[in-house]
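Got a spare moment? Tell me how you read both lines of this record:
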Amino acid sequence: MKKIKVGIPLVKNSDWLGGYNYIINLLEALDQIPNPKIEIVVFSSKEIKDKLSSKFNKISFKNISILTPLGFLYWNTKLIGKYLGDYNLHELLMSSLGISVLAYSSPLGKLKKVASICWIPDFQHIFLPKFFPKKEVLKRNRLFKSYINYSTILLLSSNSARNDLKEFSPKFIKNIRILKFVSCNSFKSEILPFNKIQEKYNIPKLYFHLPNQFWKHKNHNLVVSAVKVLNDKNIHCNIVCTGNIYDYRNPEYFSSFLELLKTCKVENQFKILGVIPYVEMVSLMFYSKAVINPSLFEGWSTTVEESKILNKRILLSDIPVHREQNPNKGKFFSLTSPLELAEQMEDCIENNEHKSNHFKSDLIIKSNKKNILDFAINFENISLDALKILSKD
């Protein structure tokens, strides 16, 4: 039986590295399926193709750099679709390449030659509009409405996101699917020796890891306040931060965060590393006292999934999606209470058992392998569903 081809665009955007890492992680998971029913075709730059094609033997890569013939057609048919509101030419291009389903892209035309799976990561702009410029809110509203109205399948990351969708669009929406992210990269990643990480970044032996990028809704300020609470009790702790320091929606946020550190007199207790290689980030997570995720809003937290894979203790803001993710070693605190977070941090400091035992537990390894495979098969089934729905319409 001939496998259907599922196209996935993969473009590296410095404003949102999470989207790029999400797709890489999905490819890692799909590569684990012993007998796949679909063939994945990735549309990417030459740089990404050269980097990844040897790593994923079961996956085809198409170079869509603008100076290539395919790249010229790819980007121009998308551009024409954007301005005319009609993606028929882009759909014809995909069909000519043998693509039956296009995932993680905008809706296609009305020719019904290629099914589309459109992903909405979260509805943060509805619940926290103050963190977005008005133009960005309007842009997201238009984009998400087009996904709802014209995609073959609307893909969401959690049941929490499905509930949030009701706020955005109260009308009944058919053909919704939930695909819950599972971290493959952290499962397969090497754990570097601690002295190698310590020497490179000059980090303290005992620290908490705050791996969220510096976007305003990630709520770093709460951690600053919690550290100050502990200092007032003569309890000293260190925070190692990783992630992009630039929030394109609030460009001044990082500088204001640095000012807050000085105001609270905790600047020497925060080590800000920015974006670092993934293997180093996972290693930092592994050796930490605990991971902290104080975020005000998530569609599905990658940080939580990485912690689950590593069997790490994680301190979490008490929001619905974190409850849904339900990490085995998770402790929840009010997203407005530095006192609650400080108490949990103090408990971690007093508890000497801070290292992960992921690599010592066969049960955890088997469970993680099953979760990764389930994630991949779920995506495969969603792709096959999209083709069935298209053929019925």
